[in-house]
Amino acid sequence: MEIFDWQGRRIAWERAGSGPAVVFCHGTPWSSWLWRPFAEALSAEFTVYLWDMPGYGRSSKDAEHPVDFGVQTEAFRALLAHWGLDRPHVVAHDYGGCVSVRAHLLHGVPYASLLLADAVVIPPSGSPFFRLVKEHPDVLAQVPPYIHEALVRAYVSNASCRELREADVDELAAPWLGEDGQAAFYRQIAAYDERYLAENEQRLSAVDVPVRVLWGAEDTWIPPAIGERLAAGIPGATFAPVGGAGHLVQLDAPVALATELRAWLGVSAGLPGRVER
Fold first, then answer.
1. Long-range contacts of 139-145 (CB under 8 A, 24+ apart)
2. In a domain? residue 27
3. Which residue, of 19, 82, 224, 276, has the fewest CB within 10 Å?
4. Superkingdom of the source (predicted)?
5. Would you call 82 helix, strand, or coil by DSSP?
6. How buried is 8 (Cβ within 10 angstroms: 0-12 exposed, 13-18 middle, 19+ buried)?
7. What percent of the chain has pLDDT above 90?
8. Average pLDDT score, the chain
9. How many CA atoms lie within 13 A of 61 on its CB side?
10. pLDDT digits over 74-86, tens only?
């Protein structure tokens, strides 16, 4: 793991492999851990990059630092410049969709391709629990740690349409436990502002990179119809449901997702032996 110091924040990141650059963006309440197995599998043919947004995962969670979509987009743009990447392939899940799309639309960051999986890009978004926390962040932030842990574990488990392994729930919940983690959990939900998503939708026609939209067919957090509307708003974008997957498509349908990723990136990067789908 390496650290990028940016505006007082410590952004954790890692890189592996060789070949065309592929950057993975996570969402909430997740971290780069969700993408790690896929990055490792692709590292034989690509240079893969993982990072944790400020306020998430292994990155700093200082209370004085805003964590809204605008800040995360600026952080992503700065990190890409730090890496010296020109037109990387970008793979984004959940909030990572908004961050990557806004970097492209508002700041002109060029990509070779963009794959969006169950992405938060256009409204509406958020599970019922997310919206409850959004309305009462100060109250829930004060619950005893054992209740908070139970809430977080139930919340992350609800994103799956399968029964998650206990070890996976442990990994997903771990960044949000302890005094700093608990405060950061409610702070990042309180920072959610749907106006960013409305602005994205108004600008979608300006996206000028190849886009693939994947969606868990059983996603109850953000219904597939939102994904279809997202793809329809982007010129040339394609949409595909992922059977047997909820919002946590990485854990619900890893084989199907890995197959989609390799096929999409193989075609987008022009690697030999791949037929366009």
1. 140/186, 141/182, 141/183, 141/186, 141/187, 145/177, 145/178, 145/182
2. yes
3. 276
4. Bacteria
5. helix
6. exposed
7. 90
8. 95
9. 20
10. 999 999 999 999 9
CB-side exposure of 113: number of CA atoms within 13 Å? 23
> Is residue 148 situated within a structural domain?
no
The radius of gyration of the chain from alpha carbons, rounded to an integer in Å, stands at 17
Q: Extract the tokens encoding 272.
A: 């030999």
Distance CA 276, CA 264 (A): 8
d(CA 124, CA 195): 10
Predicted confidence (pLDDT) per residue in 148-191, tens digit: 999 999 999 999 999 999 999 999 999 999 999 999 999 999 99
Q: In whole angstroms, how far apart are CA 20 and each of 44, 46, 79?
A: 11, 5, 17
**Sheet containing 89-94: order of strands:** 2-6, 9-17, 47-51, 21-25, 89-94, 113-119, 211-216, 238-242
Q: Provide the H-helix boundaries in the chain.
A: 36-42, 69-83, 95-107, 128-135, 137-140, 145-158, 166-173, 178-190, 195-203, 224-233, 249-252, 254-268
The boundaries of the domain holding residue 36 are 2-124+194-265
Rounded CA separation 242/6 (Å): 36
**How many other β-carbons are positioned within 10 Å of the β-carbon of residue 217?**
18
Helix %, strand %, coil % of the chain (to 5): 45, 15, 35
DSSP string spanning 172-187?
Answer: HHGGG-HHHHHHHHHH
Q: Is residue 60 part of a domain?
A: yes
Q: What's the CATH code of the domain at 235? A: 3.40.50.1820
pLDDT tens figures, 9-56: 999 999 999 999 999 999 999 999 999 999 999 999 999 999 999 999
In a domain, 158, yes or no: no
> In angstroms, what CA-CA distances link 116 with 50, 180, 218?
16, 30, 16
In whole angstroms, what is the distance from residue 155 CA to residue 255 CA?
24
Count of the separate structural domains present in the chain: 1
